[in-house]
């Protein structure tokens, strides 16, 4: 057990390092791409390229915040923060979603003004190459960050990844729009394209806001509960008669899990404690992120005899027939389920 615990702690430290370096990579590349996009705007005077560059400012600011919050979120629980610091990741994602939404709205306003007054586009070829290259880099980086965020349960990295992949779509649209301007000579297409992708940006920011808000108010997360159901079944042992009312509080990369477990009513307090402690440890050590697991005990009240395979039960009133598999629906059932 001590060796397993050391390996578990080493895995957590490695995951925290990966989160931090992924965020630093995002910030560094974002700063470089920001310079190139504003240079492209400077030489072309394109409103759609300006909208792409404006979004890159959000990328850099969000990248800086992500680095800071990942460092803070990795800090252990203390006297003032008994549940840890992980919630700051969701707060940062909420800020990033709001910033993206605001950038989208500003782009739309600017595009409408330019459409009304007209604009002269210059040096399209150079601008197209820069925007296309930046878009490809953003797409690769966004895909990388989103997948690392999923693997490491980092809401901040996932939000940054979604943002950058959306930025790639924006860049593709900008390139398509500028090609139309080049071959048709219709300069009004440029602000129209900018307005369309400003709307897409605002929509993406709104989605990030909603998802982060769900986490901040501890909304039900189906994927996490399904994973816990699989772990409950994997580590099942006789004495786990039934589990229900399972809940999870996601605090960044630290999760707080609790459930109600039906156990034999004749067990002593010591027996129940030792049994559930072993079960808790086996679940947490197999869980993909750091966390804690607490079990509330419910007595069997001799109502589960046909599905309880505990041997030598002194109070059994019916023969064991079949154990019910611990499913998603059952482990999330209400507190008074079958009681």
The CATH architecture designation of the largest domain is Up-down Bundle
CATH superfamily of the largest domain: Cation efflux protein transmembrane domain
Please give the domain count: 2
From the 3D structure, determine the CATH topology of the largest domain. Answer: Alpha-lytic protease prodomain-like
Residues in β-strands, percent: 5-15%
Outline, from the CA principal axes? elongated
Radius of gyration, in Å, reads 26 Å
* pLDDT averaged residue by residue: 81
Structural write-up:
Strands 1-2-3 form a 3-stranded mixed sheet. The protein is elongated, with a radius of gyration of 26 Å. The longest helix is centred in the first third of the chain and has 43 residues, at 2-44. Helix 2 runs parallel beside helix 6 (189-216) and helix 3 (87-117) runs parallel beside helix 5 (155-184). 41% of the residues are buried. The chain has 2 domains: 2-216, Cation efflux protein transmembrane domain (Alpha-lytic protease prodomain-like); 222-331, Cation efflux protein, cytoplasmic domain (Alpha-Beta Plaits). It has helices at residues 2-44, 47-73, 87-117, 124-152, 155-184, 189-216, 222-234, 269-285, 328-331, and strands at residues 242-251, 254-263, 290-299. It has 339 residues and is mainly α.
Describe how the helices and strands are arranged.
Elements: H1 2-44, H2 47-73, H3 87-117, H4 124-152, H5 155-184, H6 189-216, H7 222-234, E1 242-251, E2 254-263, H8 269-285, E3 290-299, H9 328-331
Parallel strand pairs: 2-3
Antiparallel strand pairs: 1-2
Helix pairs in contact: 1-2, 1-4, 2-3, 2-5, 2-6, 3-5, 3-6, 4-5, 5-6
């Amino acid at each position: 057990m001590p060796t397993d615990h050391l390996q578990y702690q080493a895995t957590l430290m490695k995951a925290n390092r990966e989160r931090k370096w992924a965020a630093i990579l995002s910030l560094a590349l974002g700063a470089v791409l920001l310079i190139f996009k504003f240079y492209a705007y400077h030489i072309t005077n394109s409103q759609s390229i300006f909208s792409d560059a404006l979004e890159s400012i959000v990328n850099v600011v969000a990248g800086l915040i992500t680095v800071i919050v990942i460092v803070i979120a990795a800090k252990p629980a203390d006297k003032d923060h008994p549940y840890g610091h992980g919630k700051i990741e969701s707060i940062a994602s909420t800020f990033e979603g709001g910033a993206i939404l605001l950038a989208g709205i500003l782009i739309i306003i600017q595009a409408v003004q330019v459409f009304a007054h007209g604009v002269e586009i210059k040096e399209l070829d150079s601008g197209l190459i820069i925007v296309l290259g930046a878009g490809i880099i953003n797409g690769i980086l966004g895909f990388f960050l989103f997948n690392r965020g999923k693997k490491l349960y980092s809401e901040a990295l996932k939000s940054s990844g979604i943002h950058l992949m959306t930025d790639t779509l924006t860049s593709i649209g900008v390139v398509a729009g500028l090609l139309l301007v080049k071959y048709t000579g219709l300069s009004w297409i440029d602000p129209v394209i900018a307005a369309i992708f400003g709307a897409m940006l605002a929509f993406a920011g709104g989605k990030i806001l909603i998802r982060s808000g769900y986490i901040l108010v501890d909304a039900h997360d189906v994927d996490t509960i399904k994973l816990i159901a699989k772990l409950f079944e994997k580590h099942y042992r006789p004495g786990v008669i039934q589990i229900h009312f399972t809940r999870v509080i996601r605090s960044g990369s630290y999760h707080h899990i609790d459930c109600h477990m039906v156990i034999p009513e004749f067990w002593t307090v010591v027996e129940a404690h030792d049994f559930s402690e072993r079960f808790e440890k086996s679940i947490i050590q197999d869980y993909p992120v750091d966390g804690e697991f607490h079990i509330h005990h419910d007595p069997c009240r001799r109502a589960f005899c046909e599905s309880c395979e505990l041997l030598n039960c002194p109070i059994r009133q019916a023969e064991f027939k079949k154990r019910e598999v611990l499913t998603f629906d059952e482990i999330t059932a209400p507190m008074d389920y079958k009681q």
